[in-house]
Write a structure and sequence with these properties.
GO cellular component, one term: cytoplasm
Mean pLDDT: 88
Radius of gyration: 25 Å
Strand order of the largest sheet: 1-3-2
Number of strands: 3
Family: Belongs to the protein prenyltransferase subunit alpha family.
Strand content: under 5%
Organism: Penicillium citrinum
InterPro entries: Prenyl_trans_a
Shape: globular
Distance between the termini: 68 Å
Helix content: 55-70%
Order of helices and strands: HEEEHHHHHHHHHHHHHH
Keywords: Prenyltransferase, Repeat, Transferase
Low-confidence stretches: 327-331
Amino acid sequence: MATPEEAFNLLVSVLSSRHKQVLEIEIIPSSLGSSFLQDGNSIGITKRALVQAFLHARQLFTKRLKPMSSNELFADIQQCGKHESEYIEIPSHIITEVILLFDCEHLTACNWRKNWLLAAISRRGESEKISSTFLEEMLETELTLLQSFQCSPLHRHTKSPTLWSHRLWVLGFLIQMRKSDISALKKLERAELDIVLRAGELHPKNYYAFTYMRNVHSTIVRAIQDQCGDGQMDCDMKDLIDSVLKWSLSSPRDISGWMFAIYLLDQREDFEISANAVKRVLRFALGVGWEGESLWTFVDQATRKFGLEDILDETFRLEFKQTETDSIELSSGKWPWRNRLSRARAYWASAAIESSDLT
């Protein structure tokens, strides 16, 4: 790739033909001998080539950067779905995609995309071009673009406050358009949770992603309650809680996942579900000898919050076949989770002694 323009044009070709597909984009080392690789929806680009593409995109964007009228934004919208060869000039929305691929905190580019989407939203029903179906596709395409950034091994994008905030803004319009379809809203929440969990895998302790998911959940719950009252989310909440616990047990050091699990349990307010969740986590910890702070913080906070001391005692007794509980005194000091861990250590030590006696 000899020039910034060539690097830019390659990215434009990929992004403009993406439609609603999700790409996996990765920065590749220059030692591979090529600055750009593509295998289906998997894209590899060197940091140097990406910088070159960004510089050219920023130059083009700056030339056009002015208070754009609704008509000008609408003209750009009309190029959506066209092939690159059909462009009169490269659309500004593609230019901003290249900019955000390099700099996920570029507020000017992100705000431009908001105005661009608002131009379509404000014309909904006024033009044959802007039908409800077309607008939904625009919003879905924007979400898949963000997913391409947030679920790719791009370190800053997975935890970008700008991108997560923009995603929530876009999703809000999609929820409003689908609020009469309860099933669609539940599927949407499930899909968003999968995206958040993937971003959490790529960037541990991703509090921006889980904060986003809290907002998504509360927004969808309100939309469902407005339509049909309480109770419609109950069975789906069990599935969400199970997925988050499964993810947290596979990433036990990640406090963000554990705190989100407590948030969901608190939203559900079901003693049996909370008890089963704590028992599941405690059995895992006791079984593998896990001493990490994040997991035991979950056990401690969930036990206190949902009144599960008896459940905790029962689980310890069953796991270690004890008939009496230990006498470790719980305190409300700076690190209350350590009381739970101390109790586990006492049982581990007791079990080790019994095992050695048998041998």
